[in-house]
Design goal:
Length: about 230
Amino acid sequence: MAKTKTAPANTVVAYLRVSTDEQAESGAGLMAQRTAIEVEADRRGWQIVAWKEDRSASGKSLGNRPALGEALELVESHQAATLVVAKLDRLSRSLVDFAGLMDRARAKRWNLIALDLGIDLSTPAGEFLASVMASAAQWERRIIGQRTREGLAAKKAAGVRLGRPVTLPAEVRHRIRSEANSGNSLACIARGLNADEVPTAQGGKKWYPSTVKAVLASQDLTVIAAAEA
């Protein structure tokens, strides 16, 4: 039976990130992160396999960061044992995303180190701290879910039609409003739109009085919101 490939325990991939063009051009933020990792590498005898940098990249999510993707590929293909960052927020500002990375590291057997907070999945203290942060991430997910539900309930109570955003051209909305103001019934407006083969907001071919009513209601809400702003 073939042995699973593993990287030497002292091999690391160093990941750096700055979020603005100004930081990327000055190099100050990158240099500070690099120095912190180099000092720790000397102290602990790490072999830095690669440096990966994302410049002008947001930390709100893990997407759209090619250098991070490359760093993860290196540890998950066992070309390095550890992914190290100088500060946790350089890796992610989302506890939910960070908790997902920790689970990924455990499942695929690589280590994750954030120097500023002492997170190190290979040590009992670091593992404990990571578990605390995972609990915080679970709390964050529940709070986000609760706020989403409450927001949707408030919109529904206010009469807002939930679902995909309206994509009707301005001229179609203007036509519906003008005909309604002229006294045409909802059914009459719908018949006219169908006769002219005007597609609905969702690309459908059939207009109904209820569809016309929804368009008028959405316009009324827009006017109200603008007046209250």
